[in-house]
Design a protein that fits this description.
single chain, 491 residues, alpha/beta, six-stranded antiparallel sheet, five-stranded mixed sheet
């Protein structure tokens, strides 16, 4: 069976391995046959709600529940595009995403106070779903969108990043060969559905007949205990989870003997973190994975079995390695540019494409869809050493907080819209955000930001400045503001 869509990966495994576990959330466990039937029932309910009209884009506002995964697959089953929303985001942010994505419907798992006009597919609703008789021909084509994720945008508005089935089907095909799984394998789902590593986990499992095992947020605080209790074979998360586990004393030597594959992405993985994890999981391969949302995961590096053979890098981070099959790269003035089968077609709002691509050696300045062979400018600075790419930071104000991509400019733009704020600068140091502002903001500035921004984008501290310092070019001296906010010597 040739797979041409993301749902095709799941459908193939459901046909081949109907009795194998497909999904495990808490005490709930569904086989491929059970999940497939539930997916059809959910798809039928969506069509009923829309009076038989097949949707184009469907929002998914769910927690870590069976409803989230059955809902995700049911949207794909209809040939439609899932657009994950996040219960942890402010209502205004989810509403802005829903408008930008032009959603036909929002599916939720009982959170009707957040999506009052949506479709309830919570536990009680799932139990009452009747059998579905779906019309034939509900199949997505290669150029149809497999999903849309929203990332931080420098203008204050989240940017929609659509990926087509032709982008992510070969991506999953690469994963299947890179990380052997199959019936009996048990794969973690540490990422939220709004974070693109979730696609890696779901479809590595569902393309191979493995089980997707979903931890609660509480269980993520003790990952080693979860890995052992659930007998996981594959683990994928942000590297900061290593540091948290290490602080709790969880990473004792040999603590995770059954783990076979350990994958980390979303933040720089330090060699120190890698050594701590390897000691605790001595039988596991350990990969550092890189890739912006616009490319899915697109590079990786597997550390040698012998730590004595590990590379040494100037910044102490594990290399991001080499591009996946079907991807190519160039480095221009230190910036990594990539193109190939996994490159997204362009932002949902064409205006966001300006400046983000290189076409025939020139920066694409148009608010239009770029050519298919255009190079995507990642904004990441890299060096090439011994045939490997090493990540050396960002060339702009973008960074990662808890694995999420954050534009400091988006936080600043939202701050400037708060009554009384004249100007604002947000600085970051070692994963912490702090902000400076001028003007006379009313009390409750952080509360005002929380209405618009998710928790990981709220500064830990805001400080009033009479005036923001300027450099010799008449621009705000961000280095000096950062030094003051973090009480450090400049430079």
């Amino acid at each position: 069976m040739t797979v041409t869509s993301m749902f095709g990966w799941f459908a193939r495994s459901a046909a081949e391995f109907p009795g194998e576990t497909a999904l495990e959330v808490g005490a709930e466990r569904l086989t491929y046959a059970e999940l497939s039937e539930l997916v059809d029932r959910c798809a039928g309910r969506i069509l009923e709600r829309l009076e038989g009209r097949v949707p184009g884009r469907v929002g998914l506002l769910c927690g870590r529940t069976v409803s989230a995964y059955a809902g995700y697959l049911s949207i794909l089953r209809l040939g439609a595009t899932p657009v994950p929303l996040n219960l942890g985001f402010p209502e205004a942010r989810n509403a802005a995403i829903a408008r930008a994505a032009a959603l036909d419907l929002v599916v939720h798992d009982g959170n009707d106070h957040l999506a009052p006009t949506g479709l309830d597919l919570g536990a009680r609703a799932l139990a009452e779903l009747p059998p579905a008789d779906l019309p034939p021909g509900l199949v997505a084509g290669p150029d149809d969108l497999a999903y849309i994720l929203f990332t931080s945008g420098s203008t204050g508005t989240p940017k929609g990043v659509p990926l087509a089935h032709r982008n992510v089907v070969p991506f999953v095909g690469y994963l299947v060969g890179r990380y052997p799984a199959g019936p009996g394998a048990r794969i973690s789902q540490a990422a939220e559905l709004t974070f693109d590593p979730s696609v890696h986990d779901m479809f590595l499992a569902w393309a191979t007949g493995a089980a997707l095992v979903v931890p609660s947020r509480q269980e993520l605080l003790a990952p080693v205990e979860f890995i052992n209790r659930k007998a996981l074979t594959h683990w994928y998360s942000v590297p900061s989870i290593i540091s948290s586990a290490d602080r709790l004393g969880e990473l004792r030597p040999g603590r995770m003997p059954g783990l076979r594959w350990s994958m980390f992405a979303g933040e720089p993985l330090t060699l120190g973190q890698a050594r701590a994890w390897r000691a605790a999981a001595p039988n596991s391969e350990l990969d550092n994975i890189y890739g912006p949302t616009e490319l899915a995961a697109c590079c990786d590096y597997r550390l040698p079995a012998d730590p004595e053979a590990w590379p040494s890098t100037a910044n102490g981070t594990v290399p991001i390695g080499v591009p996946y099959t079907g991807m190519e790269h160039v480095v221009v003035d230190g910036e990594l540019l990539m193109r190939g089968s996994q490159r997204f077609p362009g932002y949902l709002d064409p205006a966001d494409n300006a400046g983000r691509f290189l076409v025939d050696g020139e920066v694409w300045r148009e608010a239009a869809t770029p050519p298919g062979d255009a190079w995507y400018r990642t904004g990441d600075l890299v060096e090439e050493r011994d045939g490997l790419l090493v990540h050396c930071g960002r060339g702009d104000q973008q960074l990662k907080i808890r694995g999420y991509r954050v534009e400091l400019g988006e936080i600043e733009a939202v701050m400037r819209e708060v009554r009384g704020v004249r100007d604002a600068v947000v600085a970051a140091h070692e994963g912490e955000l702090r902000a400076a502002y001028t003007g006379a903001a009313e009390p409750g500035l952080l509360d005002a930001l929380a209405v618009r921004l998710p928790a990981y984008m709220i500064p830990n501290l805001v400080e009033h400045f009479d005036e923001l310092p300027m450099n010799f070019n008449g621009k705000i001296d961000r280095a000096l503001v950062t030094a003051v906010l973090f009480d450090r010597e400049e430079g």
